C-alpha cells in the first residue's frame, strides 16, 4: 500500500498572528453582549429570565414548567395503592444498569404472610445517585413497574454516603403508583 504524504496549507501573514480570529471573536461577543443588554437575547422570554441574557435565577425560578415529557430524572421505587412493595427482587435492574449504580439484596417473604405466594422482596435496595447516569434502562426492564424515573433534577447531598439512596428513601421519594401490578395479580 503506497504512503500518502499530506502537506499543510500555507498560512498568510494575518493567519500567522491570529489577529483576524481575535477580532472576529471579540466582535461576536460584543454583539451578543449588546443584544442581551437591550433585552433581545434569543430565548429570554420563554425562560422568563431576569432581562439580562437568558440566565434563569435558580432558587426563585425553576425549570418545572419547562420540562419536556421525555425528561428522565431521579430513579425511585413505588408502592401500590395498598402500600405493598412492587419490587420482587428479580435483580434485572441491577444487571442492566450500565454504571452498576443499583445494589439489591433479596430476602424471602415469611410463609405465614398472606402474600407469601410472591417469593422474594428486597431486603436492601440501594441506588448510588453519583454513579447513576439516568438512562432509564432500569425502568424499562422492570417487569413489575416498581422503579420509575421522576422529573426530579434537584438531587443533592452533603457527602457521598448521603447520595446513596436506600430502600426507605427511595420509597419516600417515589410514593404510590396506581395501576395493575403483576406481583399481586391473582391470575399470575
UniProtKB/TrEMBL annotation:
Cofactor, how bound (note): Binds 2 [4Fe-4S] clusters per subunit.
Pfam families: Fer4_7
Listed PROSITE patterns: 4FE4S_FER_1, 4FE4S_FER_2
Chain sites annotated for binding [4Fe-4S] cluster 2: 97, 132, 135, 138
Co-factor requirement: [4Fe-4S] cluster
InterPro entries: 4Fe4S_Fe-S-bd, 4Fe4S_Fe_S_CS, NADH_quinone_OxRdtase_chainI
Catalysed reaction equations from the record: a quinone + NADH + 5 H(+)(in) = a quinol + NAD(+) + 4 H(+)(out)
Binding site for [4Fe-4S] cluster 1: 87, 90, 93, 142
Keyword Repeat applies: yes
Keyword line: 4Fe-4S, Cell membrane, Iron, Iron-sulfur, Membrane, Metal-binding, NAD, Quinone, Repeat, Translocase, Ubiquinone
Membrane topology, record value: Peripheral membrane protein
Enzyme Commission number, as recorded: 7.1.1.-
All copies of domain 4Fe-4S ferredoxin-type, residue ranges: 75-107, 123-152
Gene3D superfamilies membership: 3.30.70.3270
Subcellular location: Cell membrane
SUBUNIT field: NDH-1 is composed of 14 different subunits. Subunits NuoA, H, J, K, L, M, N constitute the membrane sector of the complex.
Physiological role: NDH-1 shuttles electrons from NADH, via FMN and iron-sulfur (Fe-S) centers, to quinones in the respiratory chain. The immediate electron acceptor for the enzyme in this species is believed to be ubiquinone. Couples the redox reaction to proton translocation (for every two electrons transferred, four hydrogen ions are translocated across the cytoplasmic membrane), and thus conserves the redox energy in a proton gradient.
Family listed: Belongs to the complex I 23 kDa subunit family.
UniProt xrefs under HAMAP family: NDH1_NuoI
Cited PANTHER family: NADH DEHYDROGENASE [UBIQUINONE] IRON-SULFUR PROTEIN 8, MITOCHONDRIAL (PTHR10849:SF20), NADH DEHYDROGENASE UBIQUINONE IRON-SULFUR PROTEIN 8, MITOCHONDRIAL (PTHR10849)
Protein's name according to its UniProt entry: NADH-quinone oxidoreductase subunit I
